[in-house]
Amino acid sequence: MAPVRTMLLWCPDWPVIAADIVEGVPATTPVAVLYANRVVACSASARAEGVRRGLRKREAQSRCPQLTTVDHDPGRDVRAFEPVVAAVEEVVAGVEVIRAGACAVAARGPTRYFGGEEQAAERIVEQVAETCEVESQIGIADGVFAAGLAARSGRIVPAGGTPEFLAGLPVEALGRPQLTDLLRRLGLRTLGDFAALPAGDVLARFGFDGTLAHRLAAGGDHRPLAVRRPPPDLAVTETYDDDPLDRVDAAAFAARTLAERLHDTLAGHALACTRLGIEAVTAHGQELRRVWRHDGLLTAAAIADRVRWQLDGWLTGTSRRPGSGRVGPVRPTAGIIRLRLVPEGVLAHVGLQPGLWGETGQERDRAHRALSRVQGILGPESVLTAVLGGGRSPADQARLVPWGDERTPARPLVPPWPGRLPSPAPALVLPVPLPAVVHDAAGEPVRVTARLEVSAAPARLEMDAGGAGAMEIVSWSGPWPVDERWWAPAEARRRARFQVCLADGTALLLSLAGGQWWVEAVYD
Prior knowledge:
Keywords: DNA damage. It is built from 15 helices and 19 strands.
């Protein structure tokens, strides 16, 4: 692919600058950032004393006794670089973060808007300096790789002149130490020497990574810019400084108004909300926050209901239930002066399936509202739904979660669980297994040996000790053994499972553990 004309902004010694921004280590003094006891970045004053990248800590300190060392922290570098990226996005659109300390943008748009590449580069550098008080340099060339090298000297490479610009640079510019060492030993010292090799020979000798480096050395590029799109600010806020919310009726009106604003904002971005954050600040500075989860899409009415219920709980303390032994939240000492709704879980809204009579799921919406209201009165644990997860037995695969919570299985569904029962799944799983006795044709109890050998074919199932409920077994399959958590004696469980079909057509799931038979589930 033809390389795109690229403008790359580079902040020199960014790990040092980030340590200055986040931890207050003065970047104007000799500073070195260490990783695995070696210098990965250093300040200009440290370089003036002979400190270089790759030096061990002891050697760097011997060259510069007043050297301040800081541990390498990629997270710190990224967090500190985010304001710089935001400052660039205020001037140009379509920014891609290359790494902490460097970001790139296609040069075509800024060049047209500011009247030239040099004018655009000056404007971006000025914006970063004014907004973040950070020094930066910009390089412009064909492709991200060449633009990054041009930024080291703040150079604008003419269009079409990238191969010539790269030809004189040393092979170390590729940033591949092992490949660079090999090229040096082969007598290839510049990128131009490397680019002159036939592509087929490079692939045969250096492999795929060497071929990619060869393409970069020749002035090509391996991928287009993956621009970053800043997420829109979807939160809505309302202040009530003149009339703080201290009554439930006023809070209900405010909840509906703010909920409609949030829903309209999400609809404008073709989004829907599944997890809602409700934040409030009282006149005395008390901060309140609660997150409501919902398994479906939150409509404007559903958002308003949850905000109203939450405000009701905060203002009146309805979460305190006498005799429950649970302590509810402390009622605010003053009215609410600021209310903020934050959609923390959003997804693309592609529309709802119409109902049987043409409504847009009105019955389902009413059921959701009714169940959510029950939770608001009795608590989240009052309405539960089943979630299917992984496991070896039907009883292990089901998990009950509160209505509206994320339906996350207790155990992952994939990869397939070894020892899992084959299909079909039983229609009814007994909450408490029923004791039973299984006999063979001679009337002897059926056993399973340590080698998983059945003593005899199961012929009769008795559900009570008196034998009155004896039923004939016409077919059976198994055993399927389970030996779980053998390393934890208190939790260990070993059993063998059978599927049996009775004479009346009933199909059961049986298990044998410790010499005792149990009926675990019924098949439809």
